[in-house]
Write a structure and sequence with these properties.
about 280 residues; alpha/beta; Rossmann fold; 2 domains; six-stranded parallel beta sheet; four-stranded parallel beta sheet; globular; binds D-glutamic acid
Length: about 280
Amino acid sequence: MSHPTTPAPIGVFDSGYGGLTILSEICRQLPQYDYIYLGDNARSPYGTRSFDVINDFTLQAVKYLFDAGCPLVILACNTASAKALREIQQHYLPYSEDPTRRVLGVIRPTVEAISRFTKSRHIGVVATPGTVSSHSYATEIGKLFPEVTVEEQACPMWVPLVEYGESNAPGADYFVEKYTAELMQRDPKIDTIILGCTHYPLLRPKIREALPESVELISQGELVASSLADYLLRHPEMEHRLSQGGEISYRTTECPEKFEELASIFTGTEVRATRVKITG
Ligand code: DGL
């Protein structure tokens, strides 16, 4: 069994661009580390795919990042976290060549924070159809806060709106109002809504406008980043395995030029990417 000792970057994986909203916040809170961001843009979106397919794709991505040396991988994608994280943690990692490597998701750190926000104890979750059909949010909330009522809403049009650069356009209003109204009609007592998809922070102004002011919106980036910071404090054995150069390497399974153009929507800065293959 080989446990590499050379310090290496943290791997951050998403189906495409959305995880960049999480990476930005991680880098803001933990700028000292190196990161490899991997977007499986050639096969995104994951949100409308089946359980088995998301499992396979996510495992391939994790193996790629492990092979690149990363001892710690963050699944910065709700759909991958919902559908593949448990499988990887329970059925892949313990039997892999180095079981001390870790894969963490974005759902648990988000759920852990909800009690700071809700007073009515009625929570809404907006997410991709894949995340909603997994009921991962409802399950995790049920484990930590059994008294909280959860209503989940699939918003299949929101990812394409963001990816086509339409998040600020008037056309986005219809779909933002449609899904938020459906959710609030099902449970008018909701006072807190989790934006359970990496793309939704870009629609936040429109989502905010469509909801009563009293409803709190929870974005994940900050929560995931502080949870990672806390994890590294509690796990010095992992922290020592991380390289500290403040560098980010962007990798995509699609053409890099396309990635670079769209990534700027998510990061607000210019990035340089390389194309990689992650399939067997
Ligand atoms: N990154 C995905 C998520 O957070 C959204 C994009 C997709 O469907 O692949 O669920």
